[in-house]
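Hi support team,

I submitted a single chain yesterday and got back a structure, but I'm not sure I'm reading the token output correctly. Could someone confirm the output below corresponds to the sequence I sent? I've pasted both exactly as they appear in my results page.

Thanks,
R.
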Amino acid sequence: VALRGHEGAKAPPRPPATPPWTDGGAARISRFREAFEAQGGNFLDGPGLESLLPALGEALRISGVVALFFPEDDEAGREVAEALVPFGPFSLTTGAEVRRGSTAVTAGFRTAEAGIAETGTIVETSAGGKTLLPGLIADVHVSIVPSSCVVDRMEDALSALAADPPRNISFLSGPSKTADIEQTLTVGAHGPKKAIALLLE
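Hi R., thanks for writing in. Yes, this is the structure output for that exact sequence:
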């Protein structure tokens, strides 16, 4: 062992430990998918929107959907809904019309702020005056999840909102469920009966 003065030989510095929950984007998305599907959600991804339209259209038809709506200021929601019309055929409606008591079976589209890999949870907020209606009143909720917005943990999603906290935050993990009545599981009691995560670049 070579000696340098009286210090002796020093071991090379060790790289900082990597937390077990931190990994590459592909692995993070895979964990998000597994957790989301374990909660009863449907996950769709592919090389682009056009490749996803047939499967998404079929999933909506199976659920009896005939009308689609999206927030007026959500460009991704508009793009997906309008592209889907010929795959139904579906018609376009508005959140206001659905709130007034439309009897049509609906799908609500909205771009999510984040997807949490640890729990398979989709995060949607009222930041900037955005509406949460598609995830609250639709029969089927389609969350458009940008792949760059999938994070590891709840803390990561919340820290991104800390500088300007929104008034309302929805945490969506699969379809709405409750077992309050005689301990019998009911799907869609307080919200969408089906939840779809559409992963887009």
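A quick pointer for reading it: The chain has five helices and twelve strands. Let us know if anything else looks off.

Best,
Support desk
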